[in-house]
Model the fold of this input.
Amino acid sequence: MIGYQVYVRSFRDGNLDGVGDFKGLTEALGYLKELSINLVWLMPVFSSITFHGYDVVDFRRFKAEYGTKDDFLELLRVFHDNGIKVVLDFPIHHTSILHEWFQRALRGEKRYRDYYVWADEDTNTNETRDWDGERIWHPSESGYYRGLFGPFTPDLNYANESVTNEMKEITAELLEMGVDGFRFDAAKHMRDTVEENVAFWKEFLDGLKGFFIAEVWAGPEVVDAHGEIFGHMLNFDLSYCVKDAVSREDPRVLADSITRSLTARRYVSLNFTSNHDMNRLASFSDGMDTRKMKLVFSLLFTLPGIPVIFYGDELGMRGIFSRPHTDLVLDPFPWEERMCSIGQTFWKWPTFNDPFSGISVDYQKRLEDSLFNHVVRWARFRGENAWIDGAEVRDLRIEGKVLCYNLSGEGRELKVCHNFSKGWEIVEGVRLGPFGSEVM
Ligand code: ACG
Ligand code: CA
Done:
């Protein structure tokens, strides 16, 4: 399988208003097929007032500018007819302060007050997040409420069965509608301890059938603890290390990560190029040149799990992550150099990827050795070798700057070598060009 993470607003426009939408995305089918994509993850599409959509106002409505429910159903129909699964980003850990439930809570309605988490006498309202020191408790006219991701997104109270049941119902409705599954946002934060959190999800997903991915941004141990329940886990460790290794021209960092995060697992690992919470692939560290980006793709397409492309990384779109301006990694996707053709989105001026940057789809398709064509070739290889998803990595070995390993599964076996250096290398009788890869 090959996955593609789409930010709908920036991807493709279907009604000439410059804002990406369901219709545009449906029309991009041909493009996705060129990349052999069979899993599409849509960043939040529910009604919300922000550009990112992680603060949902109504889980039963789509963002108006993305289209109607019928447009969405048509998208599902077309993608399903073409063997593509559609997975929705599902930020159910919190809601927007504008969600009706929170508004009613603020008005003092007991039922809805219990939908959220309020401070009592024992609460330390100066408590901060362990990873960046931001405050967790926020004042309101009716007391302090918990909002792990800030004051605009109060946390839902999953200790309250009514909340769990209501969210389960919404989840079931979406599956019923034809959605294939979800990327559960902030999945590690539903409960205080890892054990409780795992138990929560076990119960929540009980009886629901779908393609479930968890965003548990943590080290392999915590990811593993959740693995069996979801079946698919975003692999932050590997996704970071693959870029770090290529960037430093040293395969050891990656070899360690493969051993740590990709060997003998009871779930499928999602190995992504980058995502909306970090610098884009092309802007990793001090920036990656095309040859290095190519190697990252060659690696991701020859490792077990599911490679996931963050829209535009296949073009080498740049983007430096910064909070709160998280749109800096969400530039409009450049279909052609002028960025002014049918389907082009232009809801904002691109921050890093101006018109005529030489990265558009149209431009790169004409260049035989472009990054895009490189990705298409490897994607085709991977499409023809789907068994690699569940393969095992054997005999991981490093010789100088070359990493070799064997992949085995379903009675098949391949030997793969990757060169992390600028020069030519000959290892195990294989001749490898600068940052080149060979599969035997
Ligand atoms: C998700 C979405 C994100 C979204 C929200 C909220 C959650 O992808 O776009 O924000 O709906 C934490 C959470 C994640 C969260 C990110 C943004 N992502 O766990 O669920 O924050 C450490 C912490 C992680 C932390 C990460 C952030 O442990 O928990 O993620 O830092 O940088 C090694 C370690 C690992 C460590 C990393 C990095 O890998 O193993 O533990 O992670 O190093 O140091 C959106 C918007 C926001 C808005 C919000 C409402 O983007 O602006 O405020 O919605
Ligand atoms: Ca539009």
Remarks:
- Residues 52, 54-55, 91, 131, 149-150, 153, 185-186, 188, 215, 217-219, 236, 276-277, 323-324, 326 surround modified acarbose pentasaccharide (ligand 1) (CB under 6 Å).
